[in-house]
Every structure is written in structure tokens, then in C-alpha cells.
Amino acid sequence: MTLRIAHFSDTHVLSLRGVTPRRFLNKRWTGAVNLALNRSRHYRVEIFEKLLDAVVELGVDHAVCTGDLVNLALEPEFEMVREMLASRFEPTALTLVPGNHDYYVKEAIADGLFERHFAEFLPADIDLELGPAQRYPVTRLLDGVAIIGLSSAVPTPVFVANGEVGPAQLAGLKRALAHPDVEGRFRLVLLHHPLLPEPARRLDSIRRLVDASAVIDGLRGTAETRPHLVVHGHNHEFKAQRVPGTDVPLIQVASASKAGNRSRAEFNVYVIEDGALARIERHIHEPESGRFIAHDDRGRPLTDDARAS
Ligand SMILES: [Fe+2]
After folding, report:
1. CATH of domain 2-308
2. Residue pLDDT, tens place only, 233-277
3. Closest by Cα among 207, 170, 163, 189 to 270
4. pLDDT: is 105 or 246 the higher one?
């Protein structure tokens, strides 16, 4: 049996509709808006919409998104993205987790904006006996695949992009990986933040998953319950690594809306054959044609023959 799962992330959709002048009186907020406006020149909504169309056209078995759908976590941004997703995906066809930008301001977290707008894409297919206020990990059971989605989005001061999973979710992750419903299925874990630091990257120390080593321990678990694949976003470039101490692939996807010469929008497709990851395709935006072209995981264009093999 062959299954194909599409993965996109970090769309950073910006909408300043409804931002009141009173908010601009706050110096930090003005800085955030300026940064977001600058960012919006490089992250294009129309490219994200084309990417979603390309995912739908491929007819994949499921799609996952690892967060940072919006930019400043304003309600109009969530409304815009919700419309884009709900018009293309049935509730059972897409699974999401939030990123730091989806929790950018305290009000968004307090109002549960991400959870409210994307409720149907945040499933709880396995009873993990989570506490009454605990929404994550989300769990999705598909024919042959179990998806476990962690939230690493936490309140942070503006301009700090750290993340944290926390002990309650790690306990949930452990229960999910060992759950009888998951046994025999391909285990896919989602989160927004990278597990490994990138010291060469500017501001890396305020962009990290602060409890990464505990999450790695939780994923390493026992050989029988380890995930088959862990995927994340946040750093806007494709990267293939391994979960430390294991041979579990750890895949970072590029941004789904990036425009420019240095990097382009792309999404991944994970091809699962007979319960194992057979290959990874990178579908990269081609500005001239507006199409997304399939490449292998080393960035070489795939011919139809190579894709079929
Ligand atoms: Fe992020």
C-alpha cells in the first residue's frame, strides 16, 4: 500500500484589517507591525494559495501543516487562512499544529484564536486522557498512519520566537506512541520548532525549542514505539536530519509562501510504502510558470519515470 502525505508550513499571512491606531501607540507593537510589513513583501498570500491548489491537485491521502500560518495572530489573519483551508480541505483531510506566530500576542492565546478557527483540523482521535484544558497533542488515525501533533507555541515577549512542549504534552506523546490504536500504523509526529539548534543562524538563541532535549528523549522512547518520521518548520528551509540517537528521519520543510531569489515556496510529500518512508519529494515553486515542480530530497528535478519508480 502506498500513501502520500503533503506537508507545508510557515505561511505568515498578514492582515492589518482591524488594527486600531491605539495599538500603534505601543512602541513594541509598532516595531512588530513594521517587521511584519517588511516580511509580507517576501511571504506572498497568492503563492500560498497556489501551493494549496497544487496540494489538492496532487490528490494526496492527507495534508499536515506545522504552524506559523499567520503573522501577528490577528483575527482577520485567522479568518483569511481559515477560508483558504476550509474551501479546499475536508475536516478529515488536514491536520495542523500552531507555531509561535499563531500565538504572537497574549490576546490571541487568551481568546484561543488558533484553536477556534481551525477546530476541525485539530482532531483527538485517540483518548489520551488529557486534562480538561489540554488540547495537545492532537491525534489523527488514518488507514495505515497515526499522526501525533505537538504544540510548541507558548506566550513569549514580542520578537522572541522560542517554543516549549512541556511535561504534560510529553506525557501525552508517550501515551500516544504506546497506544494500541497506533500499533501497526506508520507513526508521524508534527511540531513547529526544530529539535536541533543552529548556532550559525542569527538570533538562534531566542528562536529555539527550550525543552528540545526532553522532547528528543520522549521521541527516542523504545525501539518498538518510536516514530517513523518527525517533521517541523520554523526555519524556512528544507533540511533532512535524524532524531539524535536514532535513525528516525527529522525533516524541516521550507516556507509555503516565500517569494524571492534566495529561496522559494515549497511543500514536501512523504511517500509511505508498506508502512515505511520510501522517499521524500520537494515540490518547489517555479515563478515563471507559477507551478510547483517535484524534486527529490537533494533538490534534483524528478521526471515522471523517477516518481513512478
Ligand atoms: Fe516559527
Report:
1. 3.60.21.10
2. 999 999 999 999 999 999 999 999 999 878 899 999 999 999 999
3. 189
4. 246
User: How do strand 138-142 and strand 266-273 relate by DSSP bridges?
Assistant: unpaired
pLDDT in tens, 141-165: 999 999 999 999 998 887 889 999 9
The Cα 261–Cα 258 span in angstroms is 10
> Between 307 and 12, where is the model more confident?
12
Using DSSP's 3-state secondary structure scheme, residue 159 falls into coil
Question: What's the CA-to-centroid distance between 230 and ligand 1, angstroms?
Answer: 16
Residue 22 clears pLDDT 90, i.e. is over it = no
**Cα of 304 to ligand 1 centre, how many Å?**
34
Ligand 1 center–CA 68 separation, angstroms: 6
Ligand 1 centre distance from Cα of residue 258 (Å): 14
Q: How far is CA 85 from CA 80, 96, 153, 209, in A?
A: 9, 11, 20, 27
Burial of 297 (0-12, 13-18, 19+ CB in 10 A): middle
In this structure, how many other beta carbons lie within 10 angstroms of the beta carbon of residue 52?
23
**Distance from C-alpha of 271 to C-alpha of 294, rounded to nearest angstrom:** 13
Q: Does residue 162 sit in helix, strand or coil?
A: coil
